[in-house]
Predict the 3D structure of the following.
Amino acid sequence: MKIRLLIPVFLAFLFIDSSSADVTGIPNMELSTATSTAATQVSIWSLPDGGGDDLQHARVFGGGWTDATITLTLVDSGSYPVFLYPLEDLWLEAAEGNFTTCTGGSIADTHTDVNGQTTFSLPMHAGGSGSGLIVRVAGDTLTQAPLPFLLNSPDMNADLTVNLSDVIIFVEAYFGSYDVAADFLWDGYLNLSDVILLATGLSTSCPSRLFSGSGSYAAAPPRWTDIHKAMLSPALNAFSPTPAHSAKNQTLSSRAAMPRLA
């Protein structure tokens, strides 16, 4: 009789134990977090071939760079770190806009470590424009608010190839109302600096092999190092007045917030 009474208790124990096991090691989207080292909104200029800005050199409005590396911390429902979560299952997306990445073009730097952490610091292989960055975990999204990033690219139509079609879109923006999607330098104006950055990206496209699965990426030309220093040259932008409006917390809906420099 006692044995009969113990059987339901034993089965209930097995059920509870197996339910707990189901969530162990599985990232919890509400408890996991993503943070950026940047103290304010930053901008990232991307190219499909990965030759744009890395997140360690994000653009500060008006000139200069800052480290905006994103640190992701994955924990399960018990708040325990999720160790060795695959880097290819962790990627960045824009919360708003047509910002588009090549396959594997915005994945994490490494698998998660013993603390459940990894970073996003490499250049994204991407095109289009957008605002706000969100972290995707195997297709799921962290429940926190998007990180304050602006995103743009010479690949303005987001087809992951920079060509004449993008030049036409840029020209329309250049001679029209201010559009942050075409303000590659992010100084509040459309000027020669943005034209040069557009020309720099011409003919770029996604690499044929971006990610090998072993943590290695296709090499991309480090375009930003010398070119972007030239963009800040006083001689090049001698006729660029100080922007009259702040660009803090811009989104795609605030594209016309600042004037265009003719």
